[in-house]
Write a structure and sequence with these properties.
homodimer; alpha+beta; NADH Oxidase; 4-stranded antiparallel beta sheet; 5 strands; globular
Chain lengths: 256, 256
């Protein structure tokens, strides 16, 4: 029989300061495109953010991710060419004022960022039947996305910017990186130190779209029930917290 | 012209202690199924973890997520019935010893957890053309997954357990929660305080699958190039960090 002390997290405690560190990371994480500096990333830092990614939740403990570390300028250039092609196609999908604004946006930092990382999903990693993927086939893809988000947050806390380049056709990315068929590229990330982090998401600052009021995205027990009395007090709390957040106050800063 | 001090994050700094708080959260987050306690979750805490979810990255700043807060036992029961059906189907997909082990695993805490939250993705939220979703149509689904991961980490730092129930057919979940057609249910989460957090993922402890060695998941510049000299030092660092991690040592604990 196993000792309880080795099977339980007995010595792990989280203080309000711990919580504030996490919230600070979450609220100040940005999708970085235009502020990369060329400084190399120390292996010690890269190792830590990859370890964070590797400890994401995964369906059936499948750990379906791999990480292709791209530093070769020729490989980056092939990806960048793929971006430019998909970007030109995308621009043509917008009209009028939106198209004008779209063309002014910088949407990637492939060549400037010292390191690019492609996070993938190996759908066959542990055989055809996976615990938790039997009813929803997308679950393994979602696991790799969780790895991306862990990496992104870890990078922010290490002072590194991350930008997710999604404007490239998956088959073009696959070709540029030699990714074979059962493997799905999930995210192509540009990573590096930055001149600065922006206070707000660029598309919010550019008035492309506003930050949505969170309390309006809360439904009680059924989709569309936005006035369920069971959620009234929660929504009021969310409105207050959202207002504090707009003022840059961390949500645990008043707790001890 | 905007003031640089308002557009940049000038006063945001991360210390090694901040980083360790984040890594502690990431490494001690668990998928909780069997340890939920019935205590209610304070609105103040729920609000903070939802605010964390709402600050996930989203493609084109689309914020495609909604949150259905489920506390009604009748709604939970409908979801639980859907789980039981999908679980029985899944058990039949495994054979021999794997099937025996599968049947012993507790895979959800729907009725026991005081709060369940369904995180969704509204694919039509901002119209048919979305910046960053033009070449990869799955990007908005991935944004909602990033919201799930933010919520999960915030919950862990607040001492709350989260379990993702994926063994239910999406259309059954849709029916139980009245989710209309353009909205995609991404994650059904059970949330609550817990008797304890397990030291390791349950499927690792049950010898269902081992934790993979991270250094073997690293490729240099091209898929399959696992011996690229450009990654040799990084892999060595990863092996050392992984060994420290197995011993429960946080990766920034030796830094200051």
């Amino acid at each position: 029989m196993e000792n309880r002390s080795t099977t339980h997290q007995n010595d792990v405690h989280f203080t309000p300061a711990d919580r504030n560190s996490l919230y600070k990371t979450i609220f100040n994480r940005r999708d970085v495109r235009g502020q990369f500096k060329p400084d190399p990333i120390p292996d010690a830092t890269l190792s830590r953010i990859l370890l964070a990614a590797h400890h994401a939740p995964s369906v059936g403990f499948m750990q379906p991710w791999d990480f292709i570390i791209v530093t070769d300028p020729n490989v980056k250039r092939a990806v960048h060419t793929g971006f430019q092609q998909a970007h030109a196609e995308a621009a043509a999908m917008f009209t009028g004022e939106k198209q004008k604004v779209y063309r002014t946006l910088k949407l990637e930092g492939i060549m400037e960022a010292p390191v690019n990382i492609c996070v993938t999903c190996d759908r066959d990693r542990t055989g055809p039947v996976v615990i938790g993927r039997t009813a929803d086939k997308a679950m393994d893809l979602y696991s790799s996305v969780c790895a991306v988000q862990n990496l992104w947050l870890a990078a922010r806390s290490e002072g590194l910017g991350v930008g997710w380049v999604s404007i490239i056709h998956p088959e073009v990315l696959r070709h540029a990186l030699g990714i074979p068929d059962p493997i799905v590229p999930i995210a192509y990330l540009c990573i590096g130190t930055v001149s600065h982090f922006l206070a707000k998401p660029e598309l919010e600052t550019a008035n492309w779209l506003p930050r949505l009021p969170l309390d309006e995205l809360i439904h009680g027990n059924q989709w569309g029930d936005k006035h369920n009395p069971a959620c009234a007090a929660l929504k009021e709390t969310i409105r207050k917290d959202s207002e504090q957040n707009r003022q840059g106050i961390l949500p645990c800063s008043t707790l001890e």
